[in-house]
C-alpha cells in the first residue's frame, strides 16, 4: 500500500477523488484507515492515509500531472455566484 499525507481542508470525498479517481472508494478508504471514522468533516492536515495506487486512471493521472490536491473545505458561500441574486426576466437574462 502507498501512503498519502493530507493537506488543509481535505475531506474523505477529496481523498477518494484524488487517490482513486471517484467517490465510490470511500468505503475502501474508511476500511483501510480506521482513523477516518468521520465522513463529512475535514481531515486534519498531516494525517497519513494508506491507499492502493491506481494505474491508468485519467482523473488520478490529471491530479498527479498537474500537481493538484483537491481540498473543498467547508463551503460557506453560494456556488452559483452573484448572477443569480439579481433575478431573471422571461428570456432568462438579468
Largest sheet entry: 2 strands, antiparallel
Low-confidence stretches: 77-81
Number of strands: 2
User: Structural class per helix/strand content?
Assistant: alpha+beta
The CA-CA distance between the termini, in Å, is: 52 Å
β-strand percent reads 5-15%
- Mean pLDDT, to the nearest integer, reads 77
Q: Provide a count of the helices.
A: 3
**Which shape, going by the Cα principal axes?**
globular
Name the helix and strand elements from N-terminus to C-terminus, one letter apiece: EHHEH
Alpha-carbon Rg, integer:
17 Å
Work out the helicity level: 25-40%
Biggest sheet: strand arrangement = 1-2
Task: Walk me through what this model shows.
This protein is α+β, with helices and mostly antiparallel strands and 94 residues long. 26% of the residues lie in helices and 9% in strands. It has helices spanning 12-20, 26-32, 58-65; strands spanning 2-5, 48-51. The protein is globular and about 30 Å long.
